[in-house]
Amino acid sequence: MSIQVEKVSRTFKGQLAVNDISFEVKQGEIVGLLGTSGCGKSTLLRAISGLDTGYDGTVRVNGKEKRGTSSELGVIFQEPRLMPWLTVIDNVCFGLTGSKRENYAKAREILNVVGLSDFEKHYPKQLSGGMAQRTAIARALVTEPSTLLLDEPFSALDAFTKLQLQDMVLDLWDNYQPTMVIVTHDIDEALALCDRVVILKGQPGELYKNIELNQPKPRDKADTELAKVKSQILESLEIGRKPIRPKVVREA
Ligand SMILES: Nc1ncnc2c1ncn2[C@@H]1O[C@H](COP(=O)(O)OP(=O)(O)OP(=O)(O)O)[C@@H](O)[C@H]1O
């Protein structure tokens, strides 16, 4: 599934939050939305997902205008949003319309991919943060969406779990080749996962740069080309360029 974002703007109570943003996500591509806090990344993702319809401009899916949610788009949030009274497998099946037998078969296949086969009978309170987020990812995948939209999916997790789940995303991609849009603050995460990074800047947020990443995955973190892209991104975001405090010049 390809996505075309055309001249999308969003105003909240007379205040422009994102301004005239256009970009395309090709079929099977993993695109990262990066930018400093408040530049409108989540607002843009909500417009793409159809959870928000109050924007100006157009979102197209495979070239056709879309406004509103679609079962072809799976959304994953920062927090897993599981139902505490349901087991892992019942959380994954929630919303499926088939027979219990069919649903469980589908859910078990996905739970295997996300590494939770041994935990299907656990309840959310018995899971670690990483396992809960894996369950949320399995729930999004079970309807076989061709596109996944992820809003800072790993930012609440510890560094080690985050790396494990980033590897899992690459495995998922190998299995299903979904189109993905990932909102992240984490430049290393974007460098590990994305084929392209869209950088937003300012308030209201505007599209600043589109950076292609052609290195094969899984990527070598020590790769010099990747290091160059990282400094290009840091420079775009104006991180590390200014001293945090102005230098005090003392008189002799
Ligand atoms: N429902 C809303 N009502 C009013 N203002 C909103 C709403 N949603 C977002 N905004 C405003 O729009 C701007 C962009 O917010 P958004 O959450 O999209 O930014 P972001 O880049 O995702 O930020 P962060 O990285 O901190 O999550 C902010 O100024 C925010 O206050």
Automatic annotation (TrEMBL):
<protein>
    <submittedName>
        <fullName>ABC transporter ATP-binding protein</fullName>
    </submittedName>
</protein>
<dbReference type="GO" id="GO:0005524">
    <property type="term" value="F:ATP binding"/>
</dbReference>
<dbReference type="GO" id="GO:0016887">
    <property type="term" value="F:ATP hydrolysis activity"/>
</dbReference>
<dbReference type="InterPro" id="IPR050166">
    <property type="entry name" value="ABC_transporter_ATP-bind"/>
</dbReference>
<keyword id="KW-0813">Transport</keyword>
<feature type="domain" description="ABC transporter">
    <location>
        <begin position="3"/>
        <end position="227"/>
    </location>
</feature>
<keyword id="KW-0067">ATP-binding</keyword>
<dbReference type="InterPro" id="IPR003439">
    <property type="entry name" value="ABC_transporter-like_ATP-bd"/>
</dbReference>
<dbReference type="InterPro" id="IPR027417">
    <property type="entry name" value="P-loop_NTPase"/>
</dbReference>
<keyword id="KW-0547">Nucleotide-binding</keyword>
<dbReference type="InterPro" id="IPR003593">
    <property type="entry name" value="AAA+_ATPase"/>
</dbReference>
<dbReference type="Pfam" id="PF00005">
    <property type="entry name" value="ABC_tran"/>
</dbReference>
